[in-house]
Write a structure and sequence with these properties.
Four Helix Bundle (Hemerythrin (Met), subunit A), two-stranded antiparallel ribbon, two-stranded antiparallel sheet, Zinc finger domain, LSD1 subclass family protein, HSP_DnaJ_Cys-rich_dom_sf
Length: 489
């Protein structure tokens, strides 16, 4: 049997060689003749895939509705994740920036952000896609960087395109330029050199010498901008950048950096530990209109040295961002529905007293004596503004408010302001020193910009027995917008 198998195999091999003949020169196993090199194939595929991403991006802007735009954006992000590993090493900075911009654009669409902000994100994405398309083929001049991002000299190679050994700089892709935000400062950890004292690539800035921080960010209070602590370790407050870490992107410029009350801007508590109230960088972002906390007078701590419950240790009252515009998306404050103008008008049924003729809480206004009116205030035509019909019952036209196009106990939907809490008179405390439950302990409450004292308690926040006023819930103000926020933005 063994002697039979070997000759049979030889005959089979010869049969295939005679019948099929030798493979043509340059033929491949897939039967398509000479295959191009894998590098060439990958290059053309990469270029077409980048064009596909650009078409996806162009299609998003033409869609109507944020939901439709976000669905297309999710498709773009998915394709980009698949494509990112194929991009050359010199494009990794742009890959990182594009991933960041796509995330920011997604967030803006989800939060129904301002049209100007979304357009800026779209422009950044378009610029970065153009950069990737150019870097995938051949290096270009720094003029390729256009739009919201700009070219700045690479810190690692000092703009020369080569490292100290004469090799191509990996931080910028050998062209000497990196794409960063126009106001990007130099990295605090490496001083903009892109390398540490040992010559290794700086891990904080990615070796290009620049860091991305929020606009007008101050230097870190913990390390004074050095990016390191006294032991030479990376600063815990700024994560090595040398600049304060932002709590919000500050889209509309309504927030500003103010020194943390608890650590007095040093980033450390009295024991030398990282401050928990500011994140150890010594700064907090609060609305520009925020006054000092009434409960701790800006110290960030109570008389026992504990974190102030009113301001959560920041030293600043948590108030609406700006009285003429909604706050940052996701921050508690103004509602999404806004009209051209809002005003508070005296309740027709109780004549601003907050109670009816029997002394009961007035239902049409909720007990504070006022109703919120959007746009022009027009008296009800049925009751002529009295809020009652001829039998003394609630007018069916205005439900007792005395004003057209309103319902009972209407909520305020316009811009907000802040005012001292009526119950604690702005001190943030009541009783034996406990935090005031009506303002949250910081001494301030959110009110309509058209501020009116509660008609039921005349602004004291208390009824005749000293209990919380049922009309204004103890705040002392009519149509108080909301309870005090419980956390920083």
């Amino acid at each position: 049997m063994k002697h039979w198998v070997f000759p049979q195999v030889i005959w089979l091999v010869m049969f295939f060689l005679i019948v099929l003949g030798p493979l043509p020169s340059g033929a491949d196993t897939c039967g398509h003749g000479a295959c191009p090199s894998s590098h060439d194939h990958g290059g053309s595929s990469l270029e077409s895939q980048l064009k596909e991403l650009q078409h996806l991006r162009e299609g998003i802007a033409t869609l109507d509705g944020r939901q439709a735009q976000r669905q297309r954006l999710l498709a773009l992000r998915t394709r980009f994740k698949e494509l990112a590993p194929q991009l050359p090493e010199r494009s990794q900075n742009a890959v990182r920036d594009l991933a960041h911009e796509l995330e920011k654009l997604d967030f803006a669409l989800v939060q129904d952000g301002e049209a100007g902000e979304i357009k800026r994100r779209f422009d950044n994405v378009e610029t970065l896609l153009d950069v990737l398309a150019l870097q995938a083929t051949a290096p270009k001049e720094p003029s390729r960087h256009q739009g919201a991002l700009v070219a700045k000299p690479c810190g690692y190679c000092n703009g020369n395109g080569k490292d100290s050994w004469g090799n191509s700089c990996k931080a910028c892709g050998a062209d000497g330029w990196v794409l960063v935000a126009p106001d990007a400062p130099k990295c605090g950890n490496c001083g903009g050199a892109g390398k540490d004292s040992w010559g290794n690539a700086c891990k904080i800035c990615g070796a290009d010498g620049w860091v991305s921080v929020v606009k007008n960010a101050p230097k870190c209070g913990n390390c004074k901008g050095a990016g390191k602590d006294s032991w030479g370790n990376i600063c815990k407050g700024c994560k090595g950048t040398g600049w304060a870490i932002a709590d919000t992107d500050n889209y509309h410029g309504y927030y500003e950096f103010k020194p943390c009350g608890y650590c007095s801007g040093n980033g450390k508590d009295s024991y030398g530990n990282p401050c928990k109230c500011c994140g150890a960088d010594g700064w907090v972002q609060v609305p520009s209109t925020a006054p000092k906390c009434g409960g701790c007078k800006g110290a960030g701590k109570d008389s026992w040295g504990h974190i102030c419950k009113g301001c959560k240790g920041t030293g600043w009252a948590n108030v609406p961002t700006n009285p003429s515009y909604p706050p940052h998306p996701g921050h508690p404050g103004n509602h999404a529905h806004h009209h051209d103008s809002w005003s508070l008008q005296t309740c027709g049924y109780c004549k601003g007293m907050g109670r009816d003729s029997w002394g009961n809480l007035c239902k049409p206004c909720g007990g504070d004596g006022y109703v919120a009116i959007a746009n022009t205030a027009v008296a009800c035509g049925n009751c002529k503004g009295s809020g009652k019909d001829k039998w003394g019952n609630f007018c069916p036209g205005c439900q007792g408010t005395g004003w057209a196009n309103t319902g009972q106990n209407p909520t305020w939907g316009g811009p907000e302001a802040s005012a001292p809490c009526g119950y604690c008179k702005g001190t943030g405390k009541y009783g034996w020193g406990s935090a005031c439950p009506h303002c949250g302990g910081d001494g301030y409450v959110n009110t309509p910009t058209d501020q009116k004292n509660c008609g039921y308690c005349k602004g004291t926040g208390k009824d005749r027995l000293g209990n919380s006023c049922p009309g204004c819930k103890g705040t002392g103000w009519a149509r108080c917008v909301m309870e005090a926020p419980t956390s920083r933005p």
